[in-house]
Write a structure and sequence with these properties.
This protein is an alpha/beta fold. The protein has one domain (7-247): Spore Coat Polysaccharide Biosynthesis Protein SpsA, Chain A, CATH 3.90.550. Helix content is 37%, strand content 19%. It is built from 8 helices and 9 strands. The strands form 2 sheets. It has a 7-stranded mixed sheet with strand order 3-2-1-4-7-5-8, sandwiched between helices. α1 (22-31) runs parallel beside α2 and α5 (138-155) packs parallel to α8 (233-247). The longest helix is centred in the middle third of the chain and has 18 residues, at 138-155. The chain starts with 6 loop residues before the first strand and ends with a helix.
Length: 250
């Protein structure tokens, strides 16, 4: 493993005490001293904060815990973590799902690609290809494919997978502006983030397609315990309707 740019990864957590696994984070910190983690406890009602605090104590220079007093949703938990990361010396900032469906070793590939001066954002893409281990729940896969098609139409970008929970971007003024105010969407805030990036790019005379790269993952395993429920579908349907207006800046 070579030396990476200083990278801070935000890990949003809500009631993860029963399935959070500390060892991969502890081991990864020992292997990559330039990578740090900010765990955001999003107002958990179980012992998540204590689990995260114990984990962070193993590498306090590379792991910290940001505790939100009330549950604000994934979008705001990630945003608060990003705002915290901007106070550090990070050159790259990203966010990663706590269940590690996307293994941590992917951070290195994402960071390497962002050494290209034109790229601003690297996002993981869960594509089932021969020679890759991508295992997804069938229903969630087809719901995700339908949503991704609509998102690509709204964004006017040929993005394949907007909802993979692994993304890294440059810690620059463009992304500081993107994360400076709360997101309107929650489940699909990733799309809103890309929409904000596209609007800023077009404002500055840049082509959004030249700023973003999708990375087909070698491995992504659907971890049991997803917080997506049928009761969330009305909200998701509303977010789908809002995508087109948000992409236009309305």
């Amino acid at each position: 493993m070579g030396t990476l740019q200083a990278t801070t990864i935000i890990v949003p957590c809500y009631n993860e005490a029963g399935r959070f696994t500390p060892d991969p984070f502890i081991d990864y910190c020992s292997q990559q001293p330039n990578v740090s983690f900010v765990f955001v406890d999003d107002g958990s009602t179980d012992s998540t904060f204590e689990v995260l605090a114990r984990t962070a104590s193993h590498a306090p220079r590379q792991m910290s815990v940001l505790r939100l007093e009330r549950n604000s949703g994934k979008a705001e938990a990630v945003r608060q973590g990003v705002v915290e990361a901007f106070r550090s010396t990070a050159e790259l900032i990203g966010f990663w799902d706590a269940d590690l469906a996307t293994p941590l070793y992917n951070i290195e590939e994402f960071a390497r690609l962002l050494e290209r001066p034109t790229l601003q954002l690297a996002i993981g893409s869960r594509i089932r290809l021969l020679g890759r281990r991508v295992e997804r729940d069938g229903l969630r896969h087809y719901i995700g494919r339908g949503f991704a098609t609509i998102a690509a139409m709204a964004l006017r970008l040929s993005v394949y997978d907007t909802q993979c929970g692994a993304k890294i971007f440059r810690a620059n003024s463009m992304f500081a502006e993107i994360f400076s105010r709360p997101f309107e969407l929650d489940w699909s805030f990733d799309v809103e983030m890309i929409a904000r990036l596209a609007r800023l790019a077009r404002r500055d005379g840049l082509d959004p397609k030249e700023l973003v790269i999708e990375i087909p993952l070698q491995e992504w395993i659907d971890i049991p315990g997803s917080k997506l429920r049928a009761s969330h579908f009305p909200r998701i349907a509303w977010e789908v309707c809002r995508l087109f207006a948000i992409a236009r800046g309305e």
